[in-house]
Amino acid sequence: MNETAVAPAVELIGLCKSFDRGRVPVLHGVDLTVDSGSFVAVTGQSGCGKSTLLHLLAALDRPTSGTIRVDGRDLSHRHDLNRYRRGIGLVFQLHNLLPHLAAVENVELALFGTHRSGAERRDSALALLDRLGLGGAAERSPTRLSGGERQRVAIARALVDEPMLLLADEPTAHLDHAAAEMVLGLFDCERRNRGMTVVMVTHDAAVAARADRQVELRGGRMIV
Amino acid sequence: MTFVGLMVRNLRVKPVRSALLAVAVAVGVAAGITIGIVTSSLRETAVQILQVGRADFSITQRGVSDVLNSVMDEGDLAAIAADREVLSTVGVLVALDDLGADNPMFLEIGVPPDALEEFGVRIVAGRAYAADADAEVMLGYRAARNLGKQVGDTLRLGNDEYTVVGIYATDQEFGDSASMLPLVHLQAGERKPGDVTIAFVRVRPGVDIEALRSRIEDQHPQLVTVRAASEFGRADRNLQLLSAADDGATVLALAVGVIVVANTMLLTCLERTREFGVLRAIGWSRRRVMALVLGETLIVSLVGAAVGVGLSSLAIQVVERLASLQGVLHPEYRPKVFTRALTTATGIGLLGALYPALRAAFLVPLEALRRE
C-alpha cells in the first residue's frame, strides 16, 4: 500500500493564525484530520476563526505556524498554488459573483484554463445550474437574482470543475429548506460518485447534523 | 463565453471610460501617423528634386540648410564634366515664385534647352523654349492643369509675362508640378549668373560610381554627392531636423499615450481589485489575470488605432490645405502607415497596461477579496 493512498484528504497540525503582527490571535494550534470523501461540518460562534480556517485551507492566506496537508502534500511546500486552488471548490460566504456577467458566465469563469472549449464550458455550467434549480435563471445577472439564487450560482461555480475538495462557508445560509436540501443532496451525490471531500462552515445545527463529523471551533481551538 | 468575449464584456462595464481610453490611444496614434506622413511626404517631395534628372547621382553645395539654397559654380561643374569617367552633367538653377495663395511656392527650374532630353523631360504639347528666349516658359503637365494653362497662354512669373510654349512630363510629381525656363534667363532674373543649384551626373558604363563620388568630394570639398534617397540628408540639413522632429514627436506622443493608458488602467484595476481577488481565489493564474488586463487594453488600443487612422486622415487633409504646403505635400497612405498605427497602438496599450496588469496579477487574493 503506498503512502498517498492512505493519506487523509486534509490534515491540520498545530495550526496557528494571528493578525496584526501577532496582536490578534485567531487560531491556536488547531489539529484536524479529514478523511477522503467525508463531510465535516465546522461550527462555532461568530469570530471564532471558522472563515479564517477555510481561507487557510484554500491557500488564500498563510498560517502563522503549523502545517496544512492536503492529499498528503504540505501546502507551504507547494509552488503551484494556482493549480491547487483550481483543484478545490470554494464557496464564499458573500457569494462574490461578478455583477456584469450572467449567472452561467459566472460559473464558466471557473473553467477557464481547463482545456475545455467554450461550448463545453457553457454546457457544463448550464447542466450544473439546472441541477441546482436555476436552469431558467442562467442568463440573468446576479443583481436580478435573490440571495438564495446567488448562493446557488456560487455553489455551481465551486462545483463545476468537479473538485475533490469542497470548502464551503455557510453555503446554505441564504437558502430556504427546499433549496438547502437540494444543495446538500448535490454534495452527497458528488461525494458518492466522485469521492469529493466536504469541509463546511455552518451555523445551522440541522445542516451540521447531516455531516459525517462535526467539529467546533471555540476561542480559536478545535473542540471535537 | 470565450476569453476575448469576457474581455469585451468587462470593457462594456464602463463604456465611457473604455471609449475615452480608445480616444487617448487614437490621439497618440493620429499624432504619430500624421507627423510621420507629413514628414515622409515632405522628404519624398524634397528627394524628388534630386531625382528629376535621369542621373546616376546628383551634386549640391555641402552644408546648406535647404537644398534649394545650394549654390554651385558652373566652373566646378565644367571641371567635373571633364572627368573621363563622367558621361555628362546637367546643371540646373531652381528658384521659387509666389503665384498667390494657391501656389505660394511655385518652382522654376532653369535648364539649357539642349539638356532637356538628358534631364528626362518629354515634351507632351507644344515645343521647347529657345536657348536665348527671355519670355518663354514650359509648364509641367500637373502645373498646367493646376494653373489652367495651355500652350499659347501667358503666365506672370515675378514681374515678367511669359508665353507658355510647351507642356512637359518628367514622370516625377515634383518636376511635373513645376515650370522650366532657359537656364541663362533664370540666372539673370535671379541675379545668379554662372550659378546652378543642383547638378545631375551620368557616368560612363562600368564606372565605379562610389569611387567617382568620393573623388569628386575630395576635389571639391564644398560639394556633396547624393545617390540614394536615403542620402538626401547629406545635402539638406532641414530634412535631418525634420526627421529628428518626427522621431521626437512620435516618442512624445507614445509617452503621453502610455501615461494616459497607464493612469486609466490603474484606476480601472483598482476598482476591480475584488474581481481579481475572486478570479485568483477560484484558481486563475497570475498569467491569466495579466492576459485579461493586457487583452482588454489591446482591444481598446486596436479600436484606438482604427480611429487614429481616421483622425490622422482628417488632420492631413487640414494640413494639406495650408497655403504654405500647397503643392509641396503629397501624402501617401502606404501599408507601413497602417503598420505604424498598429505598432504604435499596441505599444501604447501594452506598455501602458503592463504595470496595472502586474499589480492585478500579484494581488494577494484574500486582501483583494476584503477590498470594498
Structure description:
The complex is a heterodimer of chains A (224) and B (372). By secondary structure, chain A is of the alpha/beta class. In chain A, 33% of the residues lie in helices and 26% in strands. Chain A has helices spanning 3-6, 50-57, 81-87, 103-108, 118-131, 147-159, 177-194, 205-209, and strands at residues 10-19, 24-34, 39-44, 65-70, 73-74, 88-91, 165-169, 197-201, 213-218, 221-223. In chain A, the strands form 2 sheets. A 6-stranded mixed sheet of chain A has the order 6-7-8-3-9-10. Chain B is of the alpha+beta class. Chain B has helices at 3-13, 15-51, 74-81, 141-147, 173-176, 183-189, 209-219, 237-271, 273-281, 286-320, 335-361, 365-370, and strands at 57-61, 72-73, 86-97, 106-110, 122-126, 136-140, 154-157, 160-169, 179-181, 195-196, 198-203, 223-226. Chain B starts with a helix and ends with a helix. The mean pLDDT of chain B is 85.
